[in-house]
């Protein structure tokens, strides 16, 4: 079987877009022997290029994650109704929500061109599959391409596109689900069970397991199931090098947050977050409309974060959030690999 990642330990620093993943966090994961991914989502090509330059200067292995542009059409009527529903939430911060949806491709073509000119070892893709030509362009530049999948049929589709490996995301993972069809919620499944099913469907393709990684025993189980490496995100949220906001940093171990749920309330795409008032008030009515809902709620979420208002924040977290600890990220990486 081919090897996708070049690192001493089978631990991957998952890309956490929106702030938590920093160059410092990626550097700490790499220094500890793991393989970090920079989060390319929501960044301009220039900002991403600057991070790549900083990390490359440290002479460590790393990859970049990109969001594949959505092909799901936005229902403008449903979006307008949701904007109206959220108006009182926004008014609490003196904000007015625009009922006209904003849809973009997260600078997809520009980022591909940048990575073609200045390639990194690995690019992982989230939110579906791009055109075959996009994958071929990256591979032609010397980049290994890994697609994120949530089921065996998605894995088979990704293999047919010619990717070099897969990130197999279980339903326990925090943050956005990578499910190809955003109108569906990810099927509840143990990540090790999913890895075994995907390994059987695409024999020989390198796999990185993600979701439900709460300690070294989980790492061992996922490796035994067939994963070459295991990605960790939630357990890095509170580490010293993470760029997580202070309210989000405290929430995973706050007793008032007793469970995680999958919701579209914040971005219009299924994502696992700590259950709060915003999820309860709007989770059932949120339309499937990414990235339009992400843009709709962004200023509100930023204002809530600045105010420490965890009732209105998107508190992405996986099911193992109670075990997230403060301290150096290197301790998390080495601790997860301790029993392998």
UniProtKB/TrEMBL annotation:
Identification of the protein by name: Propionate 3-nitronate monooxygenase
Reactions the enzyme catalyzes: 3 propionate 3-nitronate + 3 O2 + H2O = 3 3-oxopropanoate + 2 nitrate + nitrite + H2O2 + 3 H(+)
Gene Ontology BP annotations: response to toxic substance
Assigned keywords, A-Z: Detoxification, Flavoprotein, FMN, Monooxygenase, Oxidoreductase
Cofactor list: FMN
Source taxonomy: Bacteria, Bacillati, Actinomycetota, Actinomycetes, Glycomycetales
Record carries keyword rRNA processing: no
The species this protein was found in: Stackebrandtia albiflava
Cross-referenced InterPro entries: Aldolase_TIM, NMO
GO molecular function: nitronate monooxygenase activity
Family: Belongs to the nitronate monooxygenase family. NMO class I subfamily.
């Amino acid at each position: 079987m081919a090897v996708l990642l070049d690192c001493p330990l089978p631990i991957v620093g998952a890309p956490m877009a929106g702030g938590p993943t920093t160059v410092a966090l990626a550097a700490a994961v790499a220094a500890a022997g793991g393989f970090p991914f920079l989060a390319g989502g929501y960044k301009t090509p220039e900002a991403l290029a600057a991070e790549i330059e900083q990390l490359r200067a440290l002479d460590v292995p790393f990859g970049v994650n990109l969001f594949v542009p959505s092909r799901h059409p936005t229902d403008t009527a449903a979006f307008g109704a949701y904007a109206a529903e959220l108006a009182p939430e926004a008014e609490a911060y003196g904000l007015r929500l625009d009922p006209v949806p904003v849809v973009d491709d997260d600078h997809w073509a520009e980022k591909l061109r940048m990575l073609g000119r200045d390639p990194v070892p690995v690019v992982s893709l989230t939110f579906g599959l791009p055109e075959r030509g996009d994958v071929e362009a990256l591979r032609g530049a010397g980049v290994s391409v890994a697609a994120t999948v949530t089921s065996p049929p998605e894995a088979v589709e990704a293999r047919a596109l010619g990717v070099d490996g897969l990130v197999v995301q279980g339903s326990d993972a925090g943050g956005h689900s990578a499910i190809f069809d955003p109108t569906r919620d990810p099927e509840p499944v143990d990540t090790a069970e999913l890895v075994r099913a995907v390994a059987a469907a695409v024999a020989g393709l390198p796999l990185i397991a993600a979701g439900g990684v709460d300690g070294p025993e989980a790492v061992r189980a996922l490796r035994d199931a067939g994963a070459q490496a295991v990605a960790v995100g939630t357990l890095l949220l509170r580490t010293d090098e993470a760029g997580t906001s202070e309210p989000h940093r405290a929430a995973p171990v706050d007793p008032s947050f007793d469970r995680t749920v999958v919701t579209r309330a914040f971005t219009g795409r299924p994502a696992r977050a700590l259950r709060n008032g915003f999820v309860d008030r709007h989770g059932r009515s949120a339309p499937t409309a990414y990235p339009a809902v992400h843009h709709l709620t962004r200023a509100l979420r930023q204002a809530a974060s600045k105010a420490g208002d965890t009732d209105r924040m998107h508190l992405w977290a996986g099911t193992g959030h109670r075990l997230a600890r403060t301290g150096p990220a290197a301790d998390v990486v080495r601790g997860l690999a301790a029993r392998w």
